[in-house]
Amino acid sequence: MSITENVAGAVSDLPAMDHVGRVDRLRDAMGDVGLDGLVVTNLTNVRYLCGFTGSAGVLLVTGNHVHFVTDGRYTEQSRSEVGSSGVPIEIEISASEPDRAIAARAKADGVSRLGLEENSITWADHTRWVKDLLPGTELLGSNSIVETLRLVKEPAEAARIRAACAVADEALARTRHLLNEGPTEIEFAMELDSTMKRLGAADVSFETIVASGPNGAKPHHHPGGRVIADGDLVVIDFGALVDGYHSDMTRTMWIGDVGKARERMFEIVLESQLAGMEAVIAGVEASAVDSMCRQVIDDAGWGDAFVHGTGHGVGLDIHEEPRVSSRSAAILEPGHVVTVEPGVYIPELGGVRIEDTVLVTDTGCDRLTRTPKTPQPG
Ligand code: ZN
Ligand code: ZN
């Protein structure tokens, strides 16, 4: 079987997801903190719990019911998506005030301690809930209850992230040789993006970064009209989206002769990235992975040029918990998906970053982005 067929199979033969189990686990977690209802307004969390992918909808989970309110644009879509999640959900279409409809359902279900998603509702929304929608009910912050469930990926979620990584790998394998032909950053980014879509990605994970020469010293450079030329380091940071799940990978290539200083930058960052990957295992502190990467770069004298954290969780959001940084309190667990992405950025030389997306296991990590780290475009 060719690589392309493997990628096509990975994208199309996706195992079913366990929405029912997620709602059960949410109810357990709600019980642990004394909530008998939770209003889910973060649309990524809505998708996680009931499969709805539209841009407007509110979910209410109580002890014995799940209610979903959306507007008339999503009548058909909500029936098919929410219906196929397997979760018994009562759908209501409300054009004007979905939160009032949800409040009425909470009241009818006898909810007395209702959680609101503190990271997604505004101060104005909160005031409306307290003063107008449910004045007699105790309202509490959700304390990232759904985000916490999302930390550990089910096998079906890991399969989607793995497929997204496979698409990104294959797209770079097909396009990297073009770097030798002097494209502009934006031309190369467009080629990479369209190749991912042809291979089955629903979209890109985020705006592809192609940062060449001095632009590489800006970690989040937007690709522009600069022509990629001999002597450049080129930082390429990109990902594919498959059924809502992201991938995230960075490779740094060098074009022609980049000189000893840039070669050394590359070698140090590669050594740092491999040290970080080596440190990933269930039970380790995320901050320890960060310090393994940082140590190598510090020792080379470039500590001040590693200007960001080592990595982040990847899933339905491109940046999610757990963070892999010096300030992170997270302990890595089997089923977490995180990136390891040290970098060094020096205005006179450019930038080097190398990043993989990995699945944490009991014995180490499963590297989901498989592209070799050789710097020559080939
Ligand atoms: Zn990235
Ligand atoms: Zn990243």
Q: Between the first and last Cα atoms, what is the distance in angstroms?
A: 23 Å
The CATH superfamily name of the largest domain is Creatinase/methionine aminopeptidase superfamily
Low-confidence stretches: none
Give the overall form: elongated
**Strand arrangement, largest sheet?**
4-3-2-1-5-6
Q: How many helices?
A: 11
Rg of Cα set: 23 Å
* CATH fold annotation of the largest domain: Creatine Amidinohydrolase
CATH class of the largest domain: Alpha Beta
Please state the second-level CATH architecture of the largest domain: Alpha-Beta Complex
Mean pLDDT: 95
* Structural classification: alpha+beta
Total beta-strand segments: 19
Order of helices and strands: HHEHEEHEHEHEHHHEEEEEEHHEEEEEEE
Main beta-sheet annotation: 6 strands, mixed
How much helix is in the residues?
Answer: 25-40%
Describe this entry's structure for a reader.
By secondary structure, this protein is an alpha+beta fold. The protein has 2 domains: 19-150, Creatine Amidinohydrolase, Chain A, domain 1; 155-367, Alpha-Beta Complex (Creatine Amidinohydrolase). The chain contains 11 helices and 19 strands. The protein has helices at 3-12, 19-32, 43-50, 75-83, 98-108, 123-133, 145-150, 155-175, 185-198, 260-279, 286-299, and strands at 37-40, 58-62, 66-70, 90-93, 113-116, 138-141, 203-204, 209-212, 233-238, 240-242, 245-246, 249-254, 311-313, 320-324, 337-340, 343-346, 350-353, 356-361, 364-367. It has a 6-stranded mixed sheet with strand order 4-3-2-1-5-6, with helices on both faces. Strands 7-10-11 form a 3-stranded antiparallel sheet. A 3-stranded antiparallel sheet has the order 8-9-12, with helices on one face. The mean pLDDT is 95. It binds zinc ion (ZN) (2 copies).
